[in-house]
Design a protein that fits this description.
alpha/beta, Rossmann fold, five-stranded parallel beta sheet, 42% helix
């Protein structure tokens, strides 16, 4: 078992350029201290400097990071293009409430958003198309789908309220 009955685990999933990192950063800013981010891009690209491939080490590191933070009393946002296996174990092991969100962005919007990223030249349209999985939802209705037309502040407001984070104090750390 991991975390406590009070810790919140928030899982943000979606295709590339769906807004996961922006939502996670905004949740952290809104909540304050005590909300840890386990972001796939950061752990894969920055910490491990790992290529994107099946079975890569970043998946395990995301799980370990989330577990450590939950056990340390932090609420945790896990965000990335993540698949069911690691998430199912983490969800099952978490003692507190767990909430999942899927940011549903159509491919044309993905292309437009990707073009604004600092690393836009690192990935081309063909690669994005190969990676894109429309409505790649986890089984058993574990995620709330958030549409592309939901503004960032509205998405963050919704998640803060749904998860109860809006009513919890930031931690003094």
């Amino acid at each position: 078992m991991v975390g406590t009955e009070e810790t919140r685990l928030v899982v943000l999933r979606g295709n590339s350029a769906s807004g996961k990192s922006s939502v996670a950063a905004s949740l952290r800013q809104r909540f304050g201290r005590g909300l840890a981010l386990a972001g796939q891009d950061n752990l894969r690209r920055i910490v491990l400097r790992e290529r994107d491939r099946p079975g890569a080490a970043n998946i395990g590191l995301i799980g370990l990071t989330a577990r450590y933070a939950l056990d340390s009393g932090y609420h945790v946002v896990v965000e990335g293009i993540l698949y069911a296996d690691m998430l199912a174990r983490l969800r099952a092991d978490h003692r507190g409430p767990t909430h999942g969100y899927y940011l549903n962005v159509p491919f044309d919007e993905t292309l437009a958003r990707h073009a604004t990223k600092p690393n836009a030249d690192d990935v081309n349209e063909t690669q994005l198309r190969d990676w894109y999985r429309p409505r790649d939802l986890l089984p058993d209705g574990l995620e709330t789908v958030i549409s592309a037309d939901s503004a960032l502040h509205s998405t963050v407001d919704r998640i803060m309220l749904d998860t109860g984070l809006a009513h919890l104090p930031a931690l003094d750390r």
